[in-house]
Design brief:
Length: about 1400
């Protein structure tokens, strides 16, 4: 429109106040239809809804009269556009699957229809998918103004008079909006006879005004281009999830159906699909006219991203003028039909069930439910508006026009297709290479489930039935060898819907009737062939049963089937039983064991698993079996009341129940074939047990093959009961009821007869037969403990413990030593005073002590990782050691595992042991006497006393510092704790000596320092000082000439005061300090002493006293007589003979002096450090008697080749036998063939000491040299020992790894070692251990090996280097340093291990 119009409309609404007037401006322009600023978006609709009271129009321009109708036209046009598009577009917001699949075909249809009114014969099509962008292109005819307008405004004249058009830009095109409501269109258009290019964007989003505004935007977007483009293109951008789904579904449907479209639309020259870079294209092959037939064949070549496939179609066409169409459309029209079937690569008919059968040039997507025996295409089909079905509901002739109706056209096409169906069948059935002919029955089984404009009855009467009749004329059924007509074969009818059923039923029908389709065809025919047609011969299982019954005999049945009749009938009966059990009771088809057919009754059963030996047994008992049981050759069928093995067993059981005295007969039968070795073993044992107890009733074992295990169930129980009762009656082990017999019997009942526990059949350790409930397993209860309870408490534990020789795995509770701790406690707490009226609560002290002497010998095992003396287990071990030490006896002990329960065992008895030890200690008044009794050192005795105080400090068992045994209450701890120094301030020894001189022996009241601080009170340094201070003054005042006072005072004042200083002395000894000068002059230095000092000063000078004080050693040597004038003269001569440098050198090398001394001692010889271990060593004692006046005080080691004497203070001398003289008290000689060493002992040495030293020296001589690796022979001894331990550790399997440091891992240049048949390559590496073992939990064992060729003796010396000791100290728990000592390494080695720790004490 060239002119603008603006009206001002005055309105008054009920929603406004009284008298208020609203204003509405309406602008009408060329491309603007409505613009209502003052009214809401839905204003134009609400104007009618609101209560408008007055409307006034105010003229603003002089053109109102001319534009009144224009406004109404535009309004009507807009409403028409909305009516045509709005509802359908709303549906496409959520398109259904049919819409999603249809959009490509609508565009293909438009492309094809574009050339319908031109001379063009074909069109090329391309579809391009780039992610979510879909572009459809074709090179058909350009648009004209009319067709473009129809596209924009959704208007279509349809194909009313155009036979080549399938409808263009109608409702179908709206379906493409399932991809997008915005479409970019580019193409060519003819305007005023000239072809130009154009582009526009179609906007169809929203509803109402938004949709109308979109139409205006579409108009505005139209642009032309002077040059044509040559292609028409539609571009869609899928933005929503539904859009994207529609895109992919449409492309997939396109791929599935394009081949058929190409077949039916020759006007499509080519079509390509570019699917995200993947090219899909199809090429039409050459149409082949089949000779002798009205059929043609066409093969299409498809390429999907380079993957090439083919599709072949067999079809027949019809294209002839049709008067009814010509009359209806008033233009000359042909009726065009094409009926086709697809053939696969094997020339079998292929049915794509996902593709529609109906095509109107293009697939009628949505019509898939309308199945047909073929694919039918007709451009003349009249589908519904959505192209999802053909219209069949209505009369053939339109009642008004008297012309053929729309449904009539479709009916006419279907009528004509029947003859075309016959044409296809004729060709197919003449060509034996075409298979799957049953597919030609597709769609004829029943009326299709079509509900839109469909007349089912007409369709059945006029299409399905005639088509069936045609089909029955042709051989379409394949039986595996040839094709037959449907009326000539037996069609399996399956009563159950399962694959298993169908497969089995088919086999039976096939073997009985022979002429049936193949199994595969039968299943497919079931889906396609109709039922209830008397011309067809359906066979089900009931008819099979009736046929078998009619044959009457097995022989007749055998003549009717080609397989083994017994096997077949077995399977058939089993099948009938599972799926049609009622037939068995109605029809006699079951053969009995006499080969007669019988019906199934409650008395009929099979006996497949009952073998002849059992049946004969039953028959011999007088029971009937064969007449009422199925023939045993029927192997896979049983009746509902199956009598097989269970029934046979029940027969035997009933018989044996009525004849119980015959039960042992069944025990003779052993079921060797039952497959259960345990069951067989059980019955062999039962037989042997019965034979042992009732030898007169038992005879040879019989073969019970095929007898079921259940047959013995009740019988076994009865036999077990009788066996158990008989054994129980014996009461005690004897020649019949032996341990061997009971072990076997118990193993049997343990597994097979639970109730054995109710009988006394298990022997205790005393051989008495007991019940299981009264017995326990011995959980390592020591025999000492058992003896203790029996002798001291009159309780025989063996009565409740199972016999040691019973090896069966009876589940019993265990009794350990801990289980009797309460019993011990109850007895130990009994009164030791006899009471006639309460005798059960009496136990004498002698009995208790006797029990304690047993219990102390039961000790926990040592755990090297737990070293605390306060550990309960260690305390008990220590108590035993104390008891052993103080009683001076060796005891037989029993060791038990460490356990927190252990303490209860000894808690009462230990009191008696402690009392015994205390009594022994109290026999002696001092440590010296006690140590002499014990035969140990003074220090060791104190160590044992200290250990004893961990248990008790009662009695006179605590030594004071003078070694006297005292009561704890009479002693004090020495010193007190000082916080400043953070330690105890002890009493100096000087104070103790001073106090002792003053007749105050502090040591008598102080606990021995090695006993620890266990007393209740302390005696402090200050207290002792105070006492001494008082005693000094007291003695001074009483007797100044007292010798003890002089010494005490001199030591205290002259020495101790100097040590502590005057200030401290004044504090510690206030009284003495005040009178120290008086005491010094009157007590320490009397008149004579002062005179001697004066004379010494006059003779040697006053400085001489200071010189003496500065040379204390010289003064001491003079006082003791060590330094005499003669010795002094000799030293002066040595000093004059040699200079000071030489003397210093000699003094720094004392071995030179020793060597010179040894060289002068020509009578001295050595103990050889390399004495051969093979030389016999002897100890010869008391060679000669010696003078008793001289004791030997030297121990001399001499070496013959280099005589050197090592002198030390010792009561023993080792000298050569030639040097034995009268100076020795007694001697022993260690000798061999060439060398002899004499050991000389002091006369004062007791015989036990001499024996000890002799044994020690002998052990050193026997073993010592083996550990000297400087000797090559001993080096081999050591390596062989290492090899022995290495192999031993490897073979234990207890270590993750075992590494021998000297062993080369592979071949090398090391030393070759052969030992015990093994060869090793050895290289020295200088490690301080020989073998490293690692346990599976990561702990390491460092093993040092010491080896000897000698056998194990009483004492074994070995050497450990300083570095090895240092390494031992570095090993931290849980790692260990272990010593392995190997004896007799060259012959039959033996060994032991020792764990070495630096902190054991």
């Amino acid at each position: 429109m060239s002119k603008h119009l603006s009206n001002k409309i005055l309105i008054s609404k009920g929603s406004l106040g009284t008298g208020e007037v609203g204003t509405l401006f309406v602008y009408k322009k060329e491309q603007d239809y409505l613009n209502i600023p003052t009214v809401p978006e839905e204003g134009c609709l609400k104007l009618r809804a609101n209560n408008i009271t007055t409307i006034g129009i105010e003229e603003t321009d002089g053109t109102e009269d001319q534009s009144i109708f224009e406004e109404e036209k535009y309004d009507i046009f807009g409403n028409v556009y909305l009516a045509n598009t709005q509802n359908r577009l709303r549906q496409l917001d959520n398109p259904d699957d049919v819409d999603c699949k249809r959009w490509p075909w609508e565009l293909v249809q438009n492309a094809k229809d574009s050339i319908s009114n031109s001379n063009r014969k074909s069109v090329d099509i391309e579809i391009c998918v780039d992610n979510d962008t879909y572009t459809f292109k074709h090179n058909g005819e350009p648009f004209n103004i009319k067709s473009l307008t129809a596209l924009m405004y959704k208007y279509s004249s349809g194909k009313r008079n155009n036979s080549e058009s399938t409808g263009r830009f109608g409702t179908g095109f709206l379906t493409t909006h399932s991809l997008s409501k915005i479409v970019q269109i580019q193409g060519d258009i003819i305007i005023k006879g000239k072809c130009k290019g154009f582009s526009l964007t179609m906007y169809r989003e929203g509803e109402g005004e938004e949709l109308l505004n979109g139409l205006k935007r579409t108009e505005k977007s139209f642009k032309t281009n002077h040059s044509p483009f040559g292609w028409t293109a539609y571009t869609y951008h899928a933005s929503t999830r539904k859009n994207k789904e529609a895109g992919r579904m449409g492309i997939q449907n396109f791929k599935e159906n394009i081949a058929k479209v190409i077949l039916f639309c020759p006007e499509i020259n080519s079509i390509k699909l570019f699917d995200n870079g993947k090219l899909f294209e199809i090429e039409r092959g050459k149409e082949i006219n089949l000779i002798g037939s009205d059929c043609q064949k066409l093969t299409l070549s498809l390429s999907n991203n380079g993957v090439k496939t083919k599709k072949t179609y067999l079809y027949t066409k019809y294209n002839k003028p049709n008067d009814e169409l010509t009359e209806r459309f008033e233009v000359r029209r042909n009726l065009r039909i094409c009926c086709a079937v697809e053939l696969d690569d094997n020339n079998n008919i292929f049915v794509d069930t996902s593709s529609p059968c109906l095509f109107c040039s293009l697939p009628l997507v949505g019509s898939e439910a309308h199945e047909l025996p073929f694919i039918i295409n007709s451009p003349d089909f009249e589908p519904d508006s959505e192209r999802q079905a053909i219209l069949l509901d209505g009369d053939r002739i339109d009642e008004k026009t008297k012309k053929i109706s729309v449904p009539g056209i479709n009916k006419m096409i279907l009528d004509k297709s029947k003859s075309m169906y016959r044409t296809l069948l004729e060709f197919i059935c003449k060509n034996n290479s075409i298979g799957n002919r049953y597919s030609m029955a597709r769609g004829l089984q029943s009326i299709p489930n079509v509900y839109r404009s469909f007349n089912g009855q007409w369709y059945y009467d006029n299409f399905i039935c005639p088509m069936r009749n045609i089909l029955l004329e042709y051989p379409i059924v394949w039986n595996g060898t040839q094709y037959f007509k449907l009326t000539s074969v037996y069609l399996p009818k399956f009563d159950k819907q399962s694959k298993e059923y169908e497969k089995k039923a088919y086999q039976f029908i096939f073997q009985l009737y022979k002429l049936v389709p193949t199994y595969e065809d039968s299943l497919l025919i079931k889906k396609t062939i109709w039922k209830n047609d008397s011309r067809l011969h359906y066979v089900n299982m009931k008819q099979c049963v009736e046929k078998i019954e009619g044959l009457k005999t097995l022989d007749e049945l055998n003549r009717n089937i080609d397989v083994d009749v017994w096997s077949w009938l077995s399977r058939f009966l089993s099948f009938i039983q599972v799926y049609h059990n009622e037939y068995l009771q109605i029809h006699a088809i079951i053969p009995n064991m006499n080969n007669k057919f019988i019906k199934q009754t409650k008395d009929i059963a099979s006996s497949t698993n009952v073998q002849e030996n059992m049946i004969d047994c039953i028959e011999n008992l007088g029971m009937d079996w064969r007449n009422c049981h199925i023939n045993k050759r029927i192997v896979s069928f049983t009746t509902g009341t199956d009598h097989n093995i269970d029934y046979a067993v029940s027969k035997i059981r009933v018989y044996l129940k009525n004849n119980p005295n015959k039960k042992l007969i069944l025990i003779h039968y052993i079921p060797y074939d039952c497959g259960d070795e345990k069951f067989i073993k059980k019955h062999k044992m039962l037989y042997e047990f019965c034979k042992t107890l009732w030898s007169d009733k038992m005879y040879q074992i019989k073969d019970g093959t095929t007898f079921p295990k259940e047959l013995w169930r009740d019988i076994d129980e009865k036999v077990f009961k009788e066996l158990l009762q008989t054994i129980e009656n014996y009461g005690q082990l004897n020649d019949v009821i032996t341990i061997n017999f009971l072990n076997r019997f118990l193993e049997c009942v343990l597994e097979y007869y639970y109730y054995y526990s109710s009988y006394s059949i298990i022997p205790n350790k005393n051989g008495k037969l007991c019940r299981k409930s009264s017995l326990y397993r011995d959980d390592n209860i020591p025999s000492l403990f058992k003896q203790c309870l029996k002798e001291c408490f009159f309780k025989d534990i063996n009565e409740e413990l199972i016999h040691d020789d019973i090896t069966s795995s009876i589940l019993l509770g265990k009794k350990s030593i801990y289980d009797y701790s309460d019993f011990l406690h109850e007895n130990f707490k009994k009164s030791e005073t006899y009471n006639y009226y309460n005798i059960n609560n009496y136990m004498s002290s002698q009995q208790k002590e006797k029990a304690a002497l047993y219990l102390i010998r039961i000790i926990p095992k040592v755990n090297s990782e737990i070293t605390s003396d306060y550990d309960t287990q260690n305390k008990q071990i220590n108590l035993y050691k104390l008891y052993k030490k103080f009683t001076k006896r060796n005891y037989i002990t029993s060791k038990i595992e460490r356990n927190e329960k252990n303490e209860k065992i000894w808690i009462d008895s230990n009191k008696h042991i402690i009392k015994m030890i205390k009594n022994i200690i109290e026999r002696y008044s001092n440590i010296t006497d006690l140590s002499n009794y014990l035969g140990i050192t003074y220090k060791e005795t104190i160590k044992y006393l200290k250990q004893f105080t961990l248990f008790s400090s009662e009695g006179r068992v605590i030594p004071n510092q003078n070694g006297k045994l005292c009561q704890k209450i009479s002693l004090y701890n020495e010193g007190k704790w000082e916080d400043i120094s953070n330690e105890y301030k002890l009493i100096p020894d000087e104070m103790k000596e001073i106090a002792n001189l003053l007749k105050y022996d502090v040591k008598n009241i102080l606990i021995h320092s090695d006993m620890g601080r266990i007393c209740g009170e302390n005696k402090s340094y200050e207290e002792i000082c105070n006492t001494i201070d008082k005693l000094i003054i007291s003695y001074y005042n009483a007797d100044k000439k007292n010798k003890n006072l002089k010494v005490a005072a001199q030591y205290l004042i002259e020495i101790y005061f100097d040590n502590i200083g005057d200030d401290q002395a004044k504090i510690d000894f206030p009284n003495t300090f005040l009178k120290k000068d008086d005491i010094t002059l009157n007590v320490i230095y009397d008149k004579k002493t002062r005179k001697d000092i004066t004379e010494f000063g006059k003779k040697f000078g006053e400085e001489s006293i200071s010189s003496l004080l500065n040379n204390e050693n010289v003064v001491n040597d003079i006082i003791t007589g060590e330094l005499t004038d003669e010795k002094y003269d000799n030293l002066k001569k040595l000093e004059n003979e040699y200079n000071k440098k030489d003397i210093k050198y000699i003094l720094n090398n004392p071995e030179l002096i020793k060597k010179s001394i040894n060289e002068m001692n020509t009578n001295s010889y050595s103990i050889s450090r390399t004495l051969s271990i093979n030389k016999k060593i002897e100890i010869v004692e008391n060679i000669t008697s010696h003078d008793t006046n001289n004791d030997v005080n030297e121990l001399i080691f001499s070496i013959p080749s280099s005589p050197v004497s090592i002198v030390s203070s010792s009561p023993v001398s080792i000298i050569s036998s030639s040097s034995v003289s009268s100076n020795s008290s007694s001697s022993s000689t260690i000798k061999n063939d060439k060398e002899r060493v004499c050991v000389s002992f002091s006369r004062s040495m007791v015989s036990e000491q001499r024996s000890y030293y002799a044994d020690t020296f002998n052990a050193v001589m026997e073993y010592g040299d083996d550990f000297d690796f400087n000797n090559p022979i001993n080096k081999r001894t050591g390596l062989c020992g290492e090899a022995y331990i290495y192999k031993f550790l490897k073979q234990t399997g207890e270590f993750k790894s075992v590494t021998w440091n000297s062993l080369l891992n592979g071949r090398g240049n090391g030393q070759l070692l052969e030992y015990k048949g093994d060869v090793y390559h050895i290289v020295e590496n200088g490690s301080h251990y020989d073998i490293l073992c690692e346990t599976f939990d990561g702990c390491k064992k460092y093993i040092e090996v010491k080896s000897t060729v000698g056998e194990f003796g009483n004492k074994v010396p070995f050497y450990i280097s300083k570095r090895q000791i240092e390494m031992m100290k570095t090993i931290k728990y849980p790692d260990e340093y272990v010593l392995a000592v190997v004896f007799n390494v060259m012959n039959n080695p033996d060994h032991f291990f020792m764990t070495l720790k630096s902190d054991n004490l």
